[in-house]
User: Fold this.
Amino acid sequence: MNRGTDTLLADLLELARAQRAALGEGKLEEAMELAEERRVIVEGISIFERGSPVRPAAGKMAVGSAGGRVCSRENRRKAIGEILSVDRDISEAIRAAMSDTAAKLDGIDKLKRYFRNTAARGTAGKISVTA
Assistant:
């Protein structure tokens, strides 16, 4: 890796940490928005690795703006490991959100069936709903 790639990797790590912080605050949508900025940086790393002087267009954050460098092979390995850890955390948060949404939809479906059956029988009953 060269200096440009190290700078971009440092930017990628900075965004991954921002994503982890957003997840910690329960802001999954914010963490997902940062994924697009990470995609731009990964594109930049690919460009540098191919030896092209062209830099990709940046989103909200300018590519290479973190100013830091990762440098050593061990630091690169640790940075990539931390980034992958954030990706796993995001995947788990998405799975949890999907499961929660599915449970809510199941509850709504049960209520709809109950009220359809009650209306069809012409009976009025009591129902206890908790959310």
